[in-house]
């Protein structure tokens, strides 16, 4: 099984987001524990979860193969807007892949 990691931090200084490095480290650890070979890691800094202008996320989705997992630290790293989240999930499903969040909660 293969995985692509995606991490994002908000532009808000008071967001309390974990760092890109922490997110990628936690996702990589999860992949190792669950037998997923990491094929790539993409990240974006100072990008709102409500924006669809996310070149690294779109590139991560494009790189997915059937059976892959897009691993995120938390689901809110993918998107904070319900409609936008569904757009991303729909594109991921079209690739035959799925999403896994390492941490629960928003």
Average pLDDT over all residues: 92
The main sheet orders its strands as 2-1-3-4
**From the alpha-carbon coordinates, what is the Rg to the nearest angstrom?**
13 Å
Q: How can the largest sheet be summarized?
A: 4 strands, parallel
Number of helices: 3
Question: Could you provide a short overview of the structure?
Answer:
33% of the residues lie in helices and 22% in strands.
Describe this structure in words.
Helix 1 links the parallel strand 1 and strand 2. 33% of the residues lie in helices and 22% in strands. The protein has 106 residues and is of the alpha/beta class. It has helices at residues 20-33, 55-62, 82-94, and strands at residues 2-8, 37-44, 69-72, 98-101. It has a four-stranded parallel beta sheet, sandwiched between helices. The model has no long low-confidence stretch (mean pLDDT 92).
List the helices and strands and how they pair.
Elements: E1 2-8, H1 20-33, E2 37-44, H2 55-62, E3 69-72, H3 82-94, E4 98-101
Parallel strand pairs: 1-2, 1-3, 3-4
Tag the structure with descriptive keywords.
single chain; 106 residues; alpha/beta; 3 helices
